[in-house]
Amino acid sequence: MVHLIPDGFSELVSLVLEDWTWDDLAKQDSEVWRAFLYPVFLGATIRSAQAYYIRDVLHDSLEFKAVQNIHNDPIWSEKILKILNNRLNSIEGTQGEGFKKSMLKAAIEQVRSFSLSRTIGEAINFFRKHKINTLKIKQLQKDYNETLNLVDLTAREIFNFRYVKSVLWLYGCGIAEDLVPPNAHITRFLDECGYPGFGWSRNLPPDWQIFTPACGYMRKIANKVSKELGVFVTPKQAQASVWYLQSCRGLLQSRSKHKFTPAILVDFLKTQKWTIQDLSIRLDDVERLEDLSSDLKTII
């Protein structure tokens, strides 16, 4: 089977490299913890902007010091629910109301089911047990085996985290350049490239089953792009390019998604005179998603 890189993907990667900041190491321990909190809220229907939004809504209550005794605080969940419900009752008529409302309701369900407190509590124990801090992250920066080991440990020891969220956490810390999260963005892209075993549209297999082949195939794609561009490209950088592509596709109607190619995204950015950073700002801001969606729909 021929493995093809979609038209314009290498050029998209080139644009991503121009604004590349994903390898900037966390400088403070609080940044390592904050990076962990981002994927906590991600889910099949939760966008990055929504995860950032809810993390900011709960910021003070989720700080590392604030959750040290979460297992011994029976009213912690009640405090969180009050914050979420107050915000839910105050967003009517605001920009991005629909995205905010769905995220707030999802977070409320996580709190009521004690899923959130369990994840945070086990994460606190994990950080203590494995001495997770900026020094640890710096030591892992160029150590593939130990980075992979930390992903494995996180997936096994923290409730509801697994491999996708573990890799995304380490991305936020500035490491894991040779790893990719085995999520729907990646599996759909690999299917588009013709790699076998990635044709699922729904109900993905457990991420541990596809983690290794996903990393391997994205490494091959990164190598192909490297040859086309004449510069070294990591799997993480290739994955970031996939993320921009699939995140934009996710803002389109179903019948239009398959028409939206990397080449079209590149042309869109040029027409808008946007850098990748400009696009990233819009994708990460829950109040700007609707306008971005409208802009994208004009070209399909």
Binned, the helix content reads 55-70%
Largest sheet: number of strands, sense, barrel closure: none
Q: How far apart are the termini?
A: 30 Å
Number of domains: 2
Work out the strand percent: under 5%
**Nearest-angstrom radius of gyration?**
19 Å
Describe the protein.
The protein has 300 residues and is mainly α. The protein has two domains: 9-22 and 181-297, no CATH class; 29-173. 64% of the residues lie in helices and 0% in strands. Helix 2 packs antiparallel against helix 10. The two termini are 30 Å apart. The mean pLDDT is 94.
Summarize the structure.
This protein is mainly alpha-helical and 300 residues long. It contains 17 helices and no strands. The two termini are 30 Å apart.
List the helices and strands and how they pair.
Blueprint: H1 9-18, H2 29-40, H3 48-57, H4 59-62, H5 76-88, H6 97-112, H7 115-129, H8 134-140, H9 144-157, H10 162-173, H11 184-192, H12 207-229, H13 235-249, H14 254-257, H15 262-272, H16 276-283, H17 289-297
Helix pairs in contact: 1-12, 1-13, 1-15, 2-3, 2-10, 3-6, 5-6, 9-10, 12-13
Protein traits:
300 residues; mainly alpha
